Amino acid sequence: xxxxxxxxxxxxxxxxxxxxxxxxxxxxxxxxxxxxxxxxxxxxxxxxxxxxxxxxxxxxxxxxxxxxxxxxxxxxxxxxxxxxxxxxxxxxxxxxxxxxxxxxxxxxxxxxxxxxxxxxxxxxxxxxxxxxxxxxxxxxxxxxxxxxxxxxxxxxxxxxxxxxxxxxxxxxxxxxxxxxxxxxxxxxxxxxxxxxxxxxxxxxxxxxxxxxxxxxxxxxxxxxxxxxxxxxxxxxxxxxxxxxxxxxxxxxxxxxxxxxxxxxxxxxxxxxxxxxxxxxxxxxxxxxxxxxxxxxxxxxxxxxxxxxxxxxxxxxxxxxxxxxxxxxxxxxxxxxxxxxxxxxxxxxxxxxxxxxxxxxxxxxxxxxxxxxxxxxxxxxxxxxxxxxxxxxxxxxxxxxxxxxxxxxxxxxxxxxxxxxxxxxxxxxxxxxxxxxxxxxxxxxxxxxxxxxxxxxxxxxxxxxxxxxxxxxxxxxxxxxxxxxxxxxxxxxxxxxxxxxxxxxxxxxxxxxxxxxxxxxxxxxxxxxxxxxxxxxxxxxxxxxxxxxxxxxxxxxxxxxxxxxxxxxxxxxxxxxxxxxxxxxxxxxxxxxxxxxxxxxxxxxxxxxxxxxxxxxxxxxxxxxxxxxxxxxxxxxxxxxxxxxxxxxxxxxxxxxxxxxxxxxxxxxxxxx
Length: 672
Ligand code: ADP
Description:
Elements: H1 2-61, H2 67-80, E1 84-91, E2 96-100, H3 119-128, E3 132-138, E4 144-154, E5 157-167, H4 168-176, E6 184-190, E7 193-197, H5 203-209, E8 211-217, E9 220-228, H6 230-236, H7 240-289, E10 294-297, E11 303-306, H8 308-314, H9 318-321, H10 333-346, E12 348-357, E13 363-374, E14 380-389, H11 391-443, H12 449-480, E15 486-489, H13 490-500, H14 502-508, E16 511-514, E17 519-522, H15 524-540, E18 548-555, H16 556-566, H17 580-588, E19 598-604, H18 636-646, E20 651-656, E21 660-667
Parallel strand pairs: 16-18
Antiparallel strand pairs: 1-2, 1-5, 3-4, 4-5, 6-7, 6-9, 8-9, 10-11, 10-14, 12-13, 13-14, 15-17, 18-19, 19-21, 20-21
Helix pairs in contact: 1-4, 1-7, 11-12, 12-18, 13-15, 15-18, 16-17
Adenosine-5'-diphosphate binds at residues 537-538, 540-541, 604, 606-609, 617, 623-625, 632-638, 661.
């Protein structure tokens, strides 16, 4: 708005100046015309004065100065110079004597000019003896004129006066005619009287353009006032300046609007620039906040920008880094180069391992995650790469792998030792057992009663040791003598197991039932042993009442949650530290290796197990009963656990003392 006002003001000022300039030009034009007319008039009057003076000179030269001669002479002049209204002679006393042409002016004869209203002008001539004008006179034929009075001087005195009356109108008309018609209004002023007026201008035109020009008429001072005529006034009143003012204002408005929009755009630009720089600072702070080295590079792999972490990691200044190839800062530059190519090809790379060359030849193992970034048009500009220092992690992983290897080796050695020991111990034990049994058979009752008792103890001890060694051998064989996992029909396998346990089942009167069982990847011998141990235990640790054993299998994905809900009481698994709920979260984890397996259960209504001991019973030689209460070596469940773990599953128990136990184990679909 301010811009528009300013421009409008400038436009109005320019317009005013222009109008004033135009007026000035008009006025100058009028002044120049007035000057022309005035000089023309003066020239014309001077000419006529000169004519009269020449008349006088020639008259003086004449010897015959009779009235007839004068009149004849004057007649020639009035005819040649028709502007002379009359030429008349005045004697030295100031009395008019002869008048040519006399028509209408005869009345002037004998008039004494000293008595005339214009007497003072005559007296001036009389005294100065110089040609003068008599002022304005009314002419007999109408109109006005003035008399030019030329003194005829003889011996230093005026002996007479030759006068010529000049009619004003034709003199003026001739000058005005030089200009186009109606261009001016002319006023001829003598003293205070307007002696001739060609018309009146408007008051405004008079105020603006009237030009007053002094006019010398012989020895008198007249004034010429020139005013613009109708035609000139009309020309001056042209609407052109108004149109130009209007156009100027219009252009000012347009220009004002343009400047307004320009300023708005500039302001927007400045604002955007401000926002942009805020955004830049924000992004910079974000990049610098990272403790990981961050780099951006172009399609050629030349570094565009780095953060402080990168500067610290490489020990080089930013200026040294920017513009250099990204690959230069890694031990394997070829692999780094391939990584750069990979980013632009695939759009990103994930955990791309490289070894960064640091300061003082230090090497850092880093995992690079990089992705391309684009401009507003979606064109790829460069790539943004973030490195994560995994040196420590790598070291830890290597140490862990080494430990695991050592553990596996010592485990294998231990297994081998257990196997060899239990296997090799069998032979001497068998011999000890054979001979103590022989001793018992042959010398029973032949020695004293103590000897019989001692021999019985020895036989019992050896038999137990044989059982233990046999169990230990079975346990160690799970790891060392297992078969490859093959599809195993669990229903058929369970039938075979139950056939093996036929005698025991019949003796105990147990009722063993099952749901439909799947075919799983398993070592059928070991899986059979697992069923046998669990069902055997159920029979062994039964209650007084009728025993019922039930075997089920369900896909893990279906029953995991329900199972976990049921086990929320906190029963611990075979590891002695993992809660059943932990198992549930593992079941729910889609990446878990048991996710797609089966959950088996063997439940009984036997004596049950105190949850406190639920973890312990899966360890070797751990029993909850004495040998006298229940026979056994305490290795059965340890074997079960080892079998399940060899198949990639887990085993745990849920139980309520006095009501029964349910042993759960999982078998993954495929061992990984
Ligand atoms: P063993 O059967 O030779 O004693 P196990 O390793 O098979 O050795 O079992 C360890 C202990 O777990 C058993 O001594 C017993 O106290 C308990 N146990 C195992 N199965 C059951 C069961 N079904 N009911 C109750 N207690 C059981």
